[in-house]
Each structure stands twice: as C-alpha cells, then as structure tokens.
C-alpha cells in the first residue's frame, strides 16, 4: 500500500471518527446559537436603518460586527480542532489503538499525515460552511456582502490548519488535555499580542508594534485572521478610522496579506508538521 493511499484511508477513518464524537454536536449547537443571535442582531440593525444599509455608517457597523462574529467562529474552530487533535492522536497512543494499527506495514509518517488531513478537513470544512452561512444571513438581513468572501473563508481555513498542526505537534509530546489547553492558550495569546501590536502601530511606537509582528511570525494564526478580516470588511471602514490608525481597533485590518507572508505560513506549517513527524517517529508506543 502506498504512503498516499494509506494517508487517505487514515484521513477518511479520522474524519468518520471525528463526526461521531460529541464535539460535532457541540460545534453544531454553538454555531446555530451564534447564527441565531447574530441574525437577530443584524435584523435589528437593519430595522434601525430603514431595512437596508445605504449609509456609510451603517455599512461600517455591519462590517465590524461581521468581523466580530467571524472571530467567534474562528475561536470555535480553534477550540474544536485543538481538543480533537489531542484525543485523536495522543489518546490513541496512550490507549494502544495506534500500536495495533502501526503493527502492520504502515509508515508512521503516513499515519500522522492521515490524521492531519482528516482533522484538517473537519476543522476547515466547519469554519468555511459556518462562515458562508453567516455571510448569507448578513446578506439576507442587512444587504451587506463582503468584498472578498472566498479569500476570507480560505484564510480562516488556513488559520485552522495552522493551529491543528501545532496541536498535532503538541499531542506527540504531552497528554491529550494538555496539548489542547496549550494550543488554545497560544492561539489566544497571539491574538492579544496582535491587538497590542496594532495599538503600537496606531501610536507610532515601533517597540510595541514589533510585539504583534513577532507574534504573527512565531504563530501565524493572528496574521491569517487579520487577512480574513480585511477581506470581510467594507473598504470604507479604514477611511473612517483614519487608515493605519484602524489597526488599534481589534476587529479591523489595515491591509491585505502579502504573498511573502502567505508563503511563510505555508513554510511554518511544513516545518511544524516535520517536527511532529520526527517526534512521532521517536515516540515509544
């Protein structure tokens, strides 16, 4: 059996297993609640502005609120992905399930790749479908459609893949629960560092601004999130907030991502996955 075929089979089994866990039910409930609450909020916004968003202020408000709701989806995806990766890999290793599978002529790297592909499909698929549903709700309630929704949803999926890769690496070295807690903790810390860096940029303080820049290089989740926000938001939003000064607001992004940063994010995922594979190869099952 080739490595690619083995990885695809493991990915399909992982995807099926993830869909059976209660985390899928929890994600579904949280998503429905968030869509319902945001739909009600956007409908009230439309009612206050006469049914459609025709003024710049109303479109600005819808744009900012959409970014706020999308952050909720990215956080739900982060929690789901991080806490699925731990039990799926580290849990199977501790319980001996992985040993029974790897006793067959299957390469450990193919097994790990299959797990990563299955969980990545699950997490990315969730955030794309939930985000698309939210965009449709916003369109139906306030007649606002993001300027680049496909790019924004793709960046949210990429953010999920980055956090998943980190969670997979952690799950090869520490316990399932600890790997989820550390991954989500680093995700939140990077977001806070990004907000602090944005404030530093708006104040012209290079030292504080560098906090956000360095954190986005070390863990690209916040950088990808800011690229998604820029694709979701109305272009007039930055004009209202004074261009670069908009960086001080946590739910606005001043500029789209560069090709160089997207390339770095891809290299980062490859490096961390390589470390995870090396750690898993040395792991005593």
Structure description:
- The chain contains eleven helices and no strands.
- By secondary structure, it is mainly alpha-helical.
- The two termini are 22 Å apart.
- 45% of the residues are buried.
- The model has no long low-confidence stretch (mean pLDDT 83).
Strand content: under 5%
Q: Helix count? A: 11
Gyration radius, in Å: 20 Å
> Mean of the pLDDT scores?
83
Tell me the span between the first and last alpha carbons.
22 Å
Q: What's the SSE pattern?
A: HHHHHHHHHHH
Largest sheet: none
Summing up helix and strand content along with how strands pair, one would put the structural category as mainly alpha
Question: What proportion of the residues is helical, as a percent range?
Answer: over 70%
Low-pLDDT runs of 5+ residues are none
Number of strand elements: 0
General form: globular
């Amino acid at each position: 059996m080739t490595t690619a075929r083995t990885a695809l089979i493991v990915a399909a089994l992982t995807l099926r297993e993830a869909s059976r866990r209660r985390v899928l039910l929890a994600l579904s409930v949280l998503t429905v609640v968030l869509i319902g609450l945001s739909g009600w909020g956007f409908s009230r916004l439309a009612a206050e502005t006469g049914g459609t968003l025709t003024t710049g202020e109303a479109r600005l408000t819808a744009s900012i609120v959409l970014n706020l709701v999308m952050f909720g989806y990215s956080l739900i995806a982060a929690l789901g992905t991080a806490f699925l990766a731990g039990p799926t890999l580290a849990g199977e290793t501790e319980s001996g399930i992985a040993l029974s599978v790897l006793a067959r002529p299957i390469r450990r790297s193919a097994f790990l790749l299959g797990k990563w592909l299955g969980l990545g499909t699950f997490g990315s698929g969730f955030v794309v479908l939930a985000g698309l549903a939210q965009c449709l709700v916003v369109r139906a309630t306030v007649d606002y459609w993001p300027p680049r929704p496909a790019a924004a949803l793709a960046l949210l999926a990429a953010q999920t893949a980055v956090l998943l890769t980190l969670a997979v690496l952690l799950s090869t070295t520490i316990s399932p629960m600890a790997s989820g807690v550390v991954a989500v903790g680093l995700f939140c810390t990077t977001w806070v560092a990004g907000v602090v860096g944005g404030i530093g940029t708006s104040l012209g303080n290079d030292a504080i601004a560098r906090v956000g820049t360095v954190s986005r290089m070390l863990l690209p989740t916040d950088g990808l999130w800011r690229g998604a926000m820029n694709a979701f938001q109305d272009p007039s939003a930055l004009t209202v907030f004074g261009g670069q000064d908009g960086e001080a607001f946590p739910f606005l992004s001043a500029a789209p991502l560069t090709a160089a940063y997207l390339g770095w994010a891809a290299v980062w995922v490859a490096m961390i996955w390589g470390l995870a594979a090396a750690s898993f190869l040395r792991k005593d099952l």
